[in-house]
Write a structure and sequence with these properties.
The protein is an alpha/beta fold and 319 residues long. The chain folds into two domains: 146 residues, Alpha-Beta Barrel (TIM Barrel), CATH 3.20.20.30; 166 residues, Luciferase-like domain (TIM Barrel), CATH 3.20.20. The strands form three sheets. It has an eight-stranded parallel beta barrel with strand order 1-2-3-4-7-8-9-12, surrounded by seven helices. Strands 5-6 form a two-stranded antiparallel ribbon. Strands 10-11 form a two-stranded parallel sheet. Strand 3, helix 3 and strand 4 form a beta-alpha-beta unit. Helix 1 packs across helix 2, helix 1 runs parallel beside helix 14 and helix 6 packs across helix 7. The longest helix has 18 residues. It is globular. Bound molecules: coenzyme F420 (F42). The site of coenzyme F420 has 25 residues, from helix 5, helix 6 and strand 8.
């Protein structure tokens, strides 16, 4: 029921050590984020394939813009091979801010994800594909069974995930976001005449746990500041936060004033955008999330003030 996310902003060997620890304390899935400015997701997953024995290993999430889908198929199939069949492909529309920096246009993201999942299903079944801009691409080796999850927040993307994916990774931490998201995923599944029970609905949370609540909250603040800055007003308002307070944070981040951004993070923002606090606090929030129809929890950044200690504590108290 519990997965964990690692951001490859540290050397892959260090993440390999954390991943083994996470496996040992009882996590069953490890997700690695994909942004061009961090270590490469597939190199990291290759290291994790060798460092661990039984956890599932996923891209959390890649996108159809920075990598051609035929390359994505080849990369994840290679990870599936080296890990002994433990790969999962997480794919989403990608992070607009990093695309701007790379000079990549974010054209028709919904269509791009939809077509990519269809092409990936064919490529992973070793079919020769035409369409999707391809002209007969086909893998030359057997990929094995690889589930495909979609990273989604918007209403159409959530429905698409329900229609075509094996699971959905929703980047949110509050029950009200899932009261909104779960019915949309279920509607997509119903439209495609699929059983909702066959679909994993994952809360891909901002998580911070420590025996000392204050320390846990302090650690979550910067991640929450970035979430608030990147969230549309509709999401901010859903949590009873004034969009002006959100704008103040994005403007501080835009100016490089990270102290100012941290100072503007309110308790209400922490409550809305993270699973945070003592083991008891986190347990209570996880219960609320599961009540909305969430089937799995992903423990995401920052995990805790001291990652290694937090992983052990989560293992002892929650898993
Ligand atoms: N992004 C990354 O780049 N790297 C990561 O490691 C990563 C991890 C991650 C994990 C979980 C998760 O939920 C998201 C994650 N993301 C990551 C972010 C992800 O890639 C997306 O940026 C994020 O999920 C936001 O996407 P969204 O679901 O809100 O979709 C956007 C594109 C959106 O606007 N969706 C609309 C909707 O209603 O869902 C649909 C827009 C639409 O219909 N577009 C039309 C189309 O065809 O695409 C075109 C409309 C027109 O007028 O052109």
């Amino acid at each position: 029921m519990f997965g964990i996310e690692f951001v490859p902003n540290e050397p892959a060997l260090k993440i390999g050590y954390m991943a083994k620890l996470a496996e040992d304390v009882g996590f069953d899935t490890i997700w690695i984020t994909d942004h061009y400015n961090n270590r490469d997701v597939y190199s990291t997953l290759a290291v994790l394939s060798l460092a661990t024995n039984k956890v599932k290993l996923g891209t959390g999430v890649t996108n159809p813009y920075t990598r051609n889908v035929a390359i994505t198929a080849s990369c994840i199939a290679s990870i599936n091979e080296v890990s002994g069949g433990r790969a999962i492909l997480g794919i989403g529309p990608g992070d607009k801010a990093t695309f701007d920096a790379m000079g990549i246009e974010w054209e028709k993201p919904l269509t791009a994800v939809k077509e990519s999942v269809s092409a990936l299903r064919d490529l992973l079944a070793r079919k020769k594909i035409t369409g999707h801009g391809m002209n007969g691409a086909q893998l030359a080796f057997k990929p094995g069974e690889i589930p495909i999850y979609i990273g989604a927040q918007g209403p159409k993307m959530l429905e698409l995930a329900g229609r075509v994916a094996d699971g959905v990774l929703v980047n949110a931490s509050h029950p009200s976001d899932f009261e909104y998201a779960v019915p949309l995923v279920q509607k997509g599944a119903a439209d495609a005449k699929r059983r909702t029970e066959d679909l994993e609905i994952c809360a891909y949370t901002c998580f911070s746990m420590d025996k000392d609540r204050k320390k846990a909250v302090n650690e979550a603040k910067m991640v929450v500041a970035f979430i608030v800055a990147g969230s549309p007003d509709t999401v901010i308002e859903r949590h009873g936060i004034d969009p002006k307070d959100g704008k103040a944070i994005s403007s501080a981040i835009g100016k490089g004033d990270f102290g100012g951004a941290l100072g503007a993070v309110s308790d209400k923002m922490i409550e809305a955008f993270s699973v945070c606090g003592t083991p008891g606090d986190c347990k209570a929030r996880i219960g609320e999330l599961m009540d909305t129809g969430v089937t799995r929890i992903v423990v995401g950044s920052p995990i805790g003030p001291n990652k290694e200690k937090a992983i052990k504590l989560i293992g002892k108290e929650l898993l």
